[in-house]
Amino acid sequence: MSIRHSWAVTVPMANEEKDFQHFAEEVTKVLDDIGSGTVYHVINNFSHDRTYELSQELSLKDSRFITIFAPENRHLPDAYISGLRAAFDAGNKYIIEMDAGLSHDPHQLPDFLRALEAGHQCVFGSRMVPGGSITHSPINRRLLSRAGTLLSNTMLGTKLADMTSGYQGFHRDVVENIINYPLQSTAHFYQTELRYLLRNYNTCEIPISYQSPSPRVSKRAIQNAYQTLLHYFFLRLSGRAKEL
């Protein structure tokens, strides 16, 4: 496919040594096929294996891969924002977020780019629309994703089929608003918070396949999700609903 504008992918990474090589190979194939694109690996002190060293080696070998070491990051949303900011500062028109370790299929990147090129400002990957799927993930995580989507849509007035997926792409103007907004989330609810705040943009959902075991969600992450959900719910009830 042909892309008229510069684009980038941001990938938070922590303890990805086991799958690093395979992931890098698959992303490289996609970049070669498209003929453009930059990948930002965001790594912080939560990574205790050789992920940082492997990323540096790849960056030296292939300039399309850029390693960002951000020890100041406090949590997952900080890593996402660091990647978005780096891609934005580099002047990219389209910026896509995805997980490492092949949880998200790199070969679906062209689907996001087509939707962004078509004029959608926000493109959300969805496991719940026709063509989407979740495999090799514990039943409790699948139920949590579905329940989170139902609860969020009910309390926040959103209408997406999947409110918790982390595979998503944005136009540059959207990213500028994201990186300058004081997010409430400190864990996985970041994805839901963004979808709520971006509800009035020109958005679309595209089917994705999520094919990786999911780690246990900590009690702290669940607590932050409830706190953030209630924060926006009460603002909505009081007529002070937030948006970007």
Briefly characterize the structure.
It is built from 8 helices and 9 strands. The protein is an alpha/beta fold and 244 residues long.
Description of the molecule:
Helix content is 43%, strand content 17%. With 244 residues, it is of the alpha/beta class. It has one domain: Alpha-Beta Complex (Spore Coat Polysaccharide Biosynthesis Protein SpsA, Chain A), CATH 3.90.550. A 7-stranded mixed beta sheet has the order 3-2-1-4-7-5-8, with helices on both faces. Strands 6-9 form a two-stranded parallel ribbon. Helix 1 runs parallel beside helix 2 and helix 3 packs across helix 6. It is globular. The two termini are 31 Å apart. The model has no long low-confidence stretch (mean pLDDT 93).
Task: Break the fold down into its secondary structure elements and pairings.
Elements: E1 7-13, H1 17-34, E2 38-43, H2 51-61, E3 65-69, H3 76-89, E4 94-97, H4 109-117, E5 122-126, E6 133-135, H5 139-156, E7 168-171, H6 172-179, H7 190-197, E8 203-207, E9 209-211, H8 219-237
Parallel strand pairs: 1-2, 1-4, 2-3, 5-8, 6-9
Antiparallel strand pairs: 4-7, 5-7
Helix pairs in contact: 1-2, 3-6
Look at the helices and sheets and give the structural class: alpha/beta
Point out poorly predicted stretches.
none
Distance between the termini: 31 Å
Q: How large is the share of residues in beta strands?
A: 15-25%
CATH architecture: Alpha-Beta Complex
Number of domains: 1
Counting DSSP H or I runs of 4 or more residues, the number of helices is 8
Helix fraction bin: 40-55%
The outline comes out as globular
Rg is: 17 Å
In the sheet with the most strands, the strands line up as 3-2-1-4-7-5-8
Do you know the CATH topology?
Answer: Spore Coat Polysaccharide Biosynthesis Protein SpsA, Chain A
State mean pLDDT (0 to 100 scale): 93
Specify the CATH class. Alpha Beta
The CATH superfamily turns out to be Spore Coat Polysaccharide Biosynthesis Protein SpsA, Chain A
Largest sheet: 7 strands, mixed
Element-level helix/strand string: EHEHEHEHEEHEHHEEH
Number of strands: 9
